[in-house]
């Protein structure tokens, strides 16, 4: 099984050894890769919907891996029994869906040593949930595929105070180590702030003024980081 850049970057964050649960597995490419490469002894691959569940079952059986990849149908962490998986991967869903999945399974998460997450949007909301709920962001990276930038994060149990909401929005580990794609990531965020600022300029309400001020401060933060990382 060959993986494209996004899935390969997710696989690179999976620690070798423990049983992995891949939540929302769809085509089961990641579990097949992890087992074929000997990174994981066993994977529990789950999906909420019947069609991806069937497609995962088919792919696993075509690769002759049904003894090492168990495909289960169900919502979020519900198909898992506490203690079964040491690593949980949730990729290719919105950040708020990932947050709800994690929040919905505290007993399963209690035995998990590593989370590997790839939100399609709302990464800031997901980071906020992680740091508020006993997870430390260990690593983050950006991957570009088909013109899209994807954020991949690894978290471990632990506490870390990140009180700066802007850092949580942008990615504290990406900023710290000037990720190679950080400039592109920040340029995109900057364009979005500027678009919103243009819309706000048409309003005279106090709420719009407050929001515009907040965005101007954030734009300055982006300029500072761009100057440091260029
Ligand atoms: C876009 S695919 C991502 C597939 C794969 N994880 C990847 O990154 O390439 C999202 C998958 O998540 C599944 N899904 C969505 N919500 C889910 C939930 N609450 N629990 C389990 N699976 C879910 C969908 O059925 C779909 O197969």
From TrEMBL:
GO biological process, one term: methylation
A matching Pfam family: Methyltransf_18
Record SUPFAM superfamilies: S-adenosyl-L-methionine-dependent methyltransferases
Signal peptide (from-to): none
GO molecular function: tRNA (adenine(22)-N1)-methyltransferase activity
Keyword terms of this UniProt record: Methyltransferase, Transferase
Taxonomy, superkingdom: Bacteria
InterPro entries, per database record: SAM-dependent_MTases_sf, TrmK
Descriptive protein name: SAM-dependent methyltransferase
Taxonomic source organism: Desulfotomaculum copahuensis
Lineage: Bacteria, Bacillati, Bacillota, Clostridia, Eubacteriales
């Amino acid at each position: 099984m060959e993986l494209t850049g996004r899935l390969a970057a997710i696989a690179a964050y999976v620690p070798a050894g423990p049983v992995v649960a891949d939540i929302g597995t769809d085509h089961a490419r990641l579990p097949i890769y992890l087992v074929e490469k000997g990174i994981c002894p066993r994977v529990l691959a789950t999906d909420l919907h019947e069609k991806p569940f069937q497609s995962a079952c088919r792919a696993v059986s075509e690769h002759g891996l049904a003894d090492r990849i168990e495909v289960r149908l169900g919502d979020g962490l519900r198909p898992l029994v506490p203690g079964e998986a040491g690593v949980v991967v949730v990729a290719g869903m919105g950040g708020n869906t990932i947050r709800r999945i994690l929040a919905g399974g505290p007993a399963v998460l209690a035995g998990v040593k590593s989370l590997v997450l790839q939100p399609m949007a709302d990464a800031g909301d997901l980071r906020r949930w992680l740091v508020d709920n006993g997870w430390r962001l260990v690593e983050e990276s950006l991957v570009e595929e088909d013109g899209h930038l994807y954020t991949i994060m690894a978290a471990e149990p632990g506490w870390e105070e990140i009180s700066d909401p802007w850092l949580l929005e942008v990615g504290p580990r990406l900023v710290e180590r000037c990720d190679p794609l950080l400039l592109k990531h920040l340029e995109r965020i900057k364009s979005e702030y500027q678009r919103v600022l243009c819309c706000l300029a048409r309003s005279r309400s106090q709420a719009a003024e407050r929001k515009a001020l907040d965005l101007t401060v954030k734009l300055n933060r982006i300029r500072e980081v761009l100057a440091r990382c260029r």
